[in-house]
Amino acid sequence: MPKEPTYNRVDILNAAYEIFRMEGLNALSARKIGAMVGASTAPVYTCFSSIDEIKEALMVKAFEHLLRYTEESYTEDIFLNIGIGMLEFAKDYPIVYRTIFLEDERGRDMFRRFSEASNIQMRKEPSLRVFSDAEIELILNQLTVYTHGLAAMICAGIIENPSTESLCARLSDTGSRIIGATAFMSGKWPEYCKYFEDLKGEHHEHHHHPERDPR
Length: 215
Description:
This protein folds into two domains: 1-49, Homeodomain-like (Arc Repressor Mutant, subunit A), CATH 1.10.10; 58-201, Tetracycline Repressor, domain 2. Helices cover 69% and strands 0% of the residues. It has helices at 9-23, 30-37, 42-47, 51-70, 78-92, 94-103, 107-122, 133-155, 164-185, 189-201.
């Protein structure tokens, strides 16, 4: 007799995530998960005590998945990559994105954790080092509102098949205005401009000069 295949928590969670991605969190059942791995419901309840436990694990997995998207190098601008990653995730996983931020009661905690992770990433961007922690938080909050609005429109199909290039252009323009305004209002405009003057002298063409595109 051939030995029955065995499944571990990773196998079960990956199968559950696929159902989550296609149908939503509320579509989960032990029967569906078992069918996804080609088994009965027995392996599901061997690895997890309940569907609720699987849902909790899926929310963690989804959040970690989102963070990996925001840490990708879409451009040389670390701050811009955060927003692009969020929109790319919303485009690739609209049901998961809606669940994380718009539908599930755990979304508030996820949003807080995402903001904290984004703040850390922003601190790695050289052009933002002139700003205080409070100013960084202000910039992040303003751009987050805009980015989540775009993401919601993507999930709703209002912005159909947006390219990475078009998303990058939208975020770059809005981010430039928000950051430039913060630099001006905080009295750090000269210091902020100096960073780009130094880059210009080094012939770094990637970054936009604030006189043309406030960054």
